[in-house]
Write a structure and sequence with these properties.
The protein has nine helices and seven strands. It has about 230 residues and is an alpha+beta fold.
């Protein structure tokens, strides 16, 4: 069976765990992976060899410091394709047609309307929660959409949303402008200022957004000025 016809659901146990670990942070060496899973290098090498032979993982030699070269492993294009994609090639073609007729902004608006609908449904459940709890629920929602998201609590009122998979990767590469609609959605649902720190399409290992709770501004009520005294 060709690797491109597979899905991640077809892998169980350690091979599935290795694929997920590489998707979250790659490239990784055998030593790092073995330490992560509590295995010997030789035990892990057997699983990696199977994945390389299947065309799902590739490796390259790297020079690190003064030691001997090491092999660093990462997902191949076929390995990347195992992870959820919310859209497929026919939709990319349809979006190209829309752009040729009405411009890129029409494509962005299409995604903005979709994110707005999801936000309107989610916000009432999140409104009364502190930021870090809102972020956790948002990460679960995005994971259900195929983004492999996690929420990481920071110092004070700060939190981080991190996507380890882009469910619209092919579209983002062709229409990078649609990523702005995603950022607006995250800011809307969290009801907090959001800053993008990393971007998968730029070669980073994740898309990462930082958010901080809004500072409440309380109006100061002033007593009305006393009326001037009148003399009779």
């Amino acid at each position: 069976m060709a690797a491109t016809s597979l899905t991640l659901a077809g892998f169980k146990g350690m091979r599935s765990d290795i694929l997920v670990a590489l998707r979250k942070e790659q490239p990784l060496t055998i030593k790092v992976l073995a330490a992560h899973f509590g295995l010997t290098d030789n035990a892990l090498r057997r699983h990696l060899t199977d994945l390389v032979d299947s065309g799902l993982v590739v490796y390259r030699r790297e020079i690190r410091g003064q030691g001997a070269p090491v092999f660093a492993y990462s997902l191949s294009d076929a390995g990347e394709a195992l992870f959820p994609r919310a859209y497929v090639d026919p939709l990319v073609d349809a979006l190209e047609s829309l752009r040729s007729r009405e411009g890129t902004e029409a494509v962005v608006q299409l995604f903005r309307r979709r994110w707005d609908a999801i936000a309107e449904e989610a916000k009432p459940r999140l409104a009364a929660l502190p930021l870090q709890e809102r972020a956790q629920l948002l990460a679960e929602l995005l994971t259900a959409e195929g983004y492999m998201s996690e929420a990481v609590a920071g110092e004070g009122d700060a939190t981080t949303i991190r996507h380890h998979n882009c469910a619209v990767r092919e579209i983002a590469l062709r229409f990078p402008e649609v990523c702005s609609a995603e950022a607006e959605f995250i800011e809307s649902v969290l009801d907090a200022p959001v800053e993008r720190r990393m971007h998968l399409k730029d070669g980073c290992r994740a898309c990462e957004y930082g958010a901080t709770e809004r500072i409440a501004v309380h109006a100061v009520t002033r007593a009305p000025a006393s009326a001037p005294e009148t003399r009779s």
